[in-house]
Design brief:
The chain is built from 3 helices and 5 strands. It has helices spanning 25-41, 57-63, 67-78; strands at 50-56, 83-89, 92-95, 102-105, 109-114.
Length: 117
């Protein structure tokens, strides 16, 4: 690696503008909890039977040994009656707000809740 060089996960054309992020563990975990709250309150699914979590692999790399805290935060919101499954991805696709089109996100956790009610 040359001095004053960065290595990126994807291709970035020369001259592109980039934004660097500084991770905050607690904010990442809080964001997972907020995503769980939104997934049940915005869609009136108060007791989901199943929740599918799709979390960015970048979050896993950042949280490292604390990655379980992200899932526990979601479990705390959804309750013990909810079966939780999921996987890590290299980009998450979902609407940002209810009623909007799906978009590609990064460094996010998306949650899909299913209920028979």
């Amino acid at each position: 690696m040359r001095a004053k060089a960065c290595i990126f996960a994807g291709d970035i054309p020369e001259g592109s503008k980039v934004r660097f992020m500084k991770a905050n563990f607690d904010r990442l975990i809080d964001a997972a909890s907020q995503a769980a709250n939104i997934s049940v309150t915005d869609f009136n699914i108060m007791k989901p039977s199943l929740a599918i979590l799709v979390s960015c692999v970048g979050r896993k790399l950042i949280l490292s040994d604390r990655i379980d805290e992200e899932v526990e935060a979601v479990k705390d919101v959804l309750g013990s009656q909810t079966t939780i499954c999921g996987f890590y991805s290299y980009g998450e696709i979902s609407p940002l707000l209810k009623g909007t089109s799906c978009e590609l996100h990064n460094q996010t956790m998306t949650i899909t809740c299913l209920s028979e009610e």
